[in-house]
TrEMBL record:
Keyword Nucleus: yes
Family classification: Belongs to the WD repeat SWD2 family.
The name this protein goes by in its record: WD repeat-containing protein 82
Pfam family, one: WD40
UniProt keyword list: Nucleus, Repeat, WD repeat
Subcellular localization: Nucleus
Coiled-coil features, chain-numbered ranges: none
WD repeats: from-to residues: 142-183
Family annotation (InterPro entries): Swd2/WDR82 (IPR037867), WD40/YVTN_repeat-like_dom_sf (IPR015943), WD40_repeat_dom_sf (IPR036322), WD40_rpt (IPR001680)
Chief subcellular location: nucleus
Amino acid sequence: MESTPMDIDDAPSAAATPSLNITRNLAANVPSTTPISEVIASFRPTKLFQRDDIKEGKPRPYVLSIDFDDPGELCMTSESDETIQIYNVKEGRHDKSLLSKKYGVKLARFTHTSSSIIYASTKQNNAIRYLATHDNSFIRYFEGHEGAVTDLALHPGADNFISCSVDDTALIWNISTKQWIGKLFLNAPYLSAWDPSGNVFAIASLHSGSILLYDFRNYEKGPFSVFDVLQATRSGPVEPEWAFQGWTKLEFSNDGKHILLGSRGDGHFLLDSFDGSLKAYLKKPVAGTNRRAVGEPESVGNAESSGDCCFAPDGRYVLSGAKSDVLVWDTLQAPGSDKVLKPAHVLEEKRETAVVAFNPRYNMLATADQDLMFWVPDPNV
C-alpha cells in the first residue's frame, strides 16, 4: 500500500490481488432483487484490509470515516495518520493512498463525480478541501469556518453540501464556488443530514438537545420544525444526560419515515421524521466503542467518531458497531412499553467496530476501527 500517484480510472492489472467477486447479484443463487430482510442475518466478514505501510514501532492509525462513491464501486476511508485510502469494491483490493500531511484529513466524502472528493482539515486552518484523486491536486478550498468542522453532508442529487462546525455555524455550499451560499447561526450545530428527496435538511444542535428541520428552498426563513430530543425521550429509558451529549451520527432513512440519531452511549435514538417522537431506543447489549463524539475533548476517546451506526438501504434495519460484533435492529419490531428495542440479529466480529457504512449498490457493508472490513451475505447460511 505505497503512497504513489495512481489513476483510479485505469484498468486493474491481471496480477491484482484476488477478487472479492462482488457483483450486483448477492451470490450465484440469490437474485439481486432479494429483499434485505431475507439476507441481513447472513452477512459475514469477507475481506480484511490491514495497512502494510505502517513502519515498525509506529502506532496503527484509526479509520475516521468510510464513504462509497455513487456507483458503489469505490470505498474511501480517512485515517488518523493523515491519509486517505481508496479501495476497489468489486475486486476487493486497495487501489490508492493519498497523503494530506500538511492539512490533516477527516470526514472524506465522494462528490457525485467518483474522481473528486471533499474533506475537512484537522490542522493549519479549518478549510474544507476539494481534491481531484486522479492526480492528487486541489481544485478548490472552501473557507468560512472559524472552528473545527464536525460534519459534512452532501446533497443526494445536487452539487450542494452542508458543513457544521464548533464555531456555532452551519454553512451551505455549492461545490462550483468557493464562497458559501448560506449561513446558519446555531448553538453547537454538530451534525447534519439530507432527507432522501434533497428538499429538506436537518441540523442536530447538541447543546439545545434539538434537531432542526429546514426547507432547502427557504432555509433563510428558519426551521419549519424543531424536534426536542429531551422531550421525546423524557418518558423512555434514556438517562437525561444522553439527550445532551455523545451525539455521533444524524441520518434519514431512505423511505423518509425515520431519523437516526447515533450516540456513543448505550443506545441510539430512532425518531419519527414527521413529528419527532421517539419510535424506539435502540439499546446496545454490549458496551459502545472507544471513540469520542464530535465536540468532545480528546481525553474521552481514542479518536473522533463519524458515526458507528447507519440505516440499511430499505430503511427497515439499523446497523451499529460496538466493542465487538455488529448489531442489527429491525425497526418493524414493536419496542417494549419503555420504548426499548433490542437487536434482532448480532453479526459476529471479534474486532471493535467503530465506523459503519452500507453500500446499497452492491448490498455490502463496510466496518472499521483500525482495519477495514468488507461484509457480504453468505449464500450458504
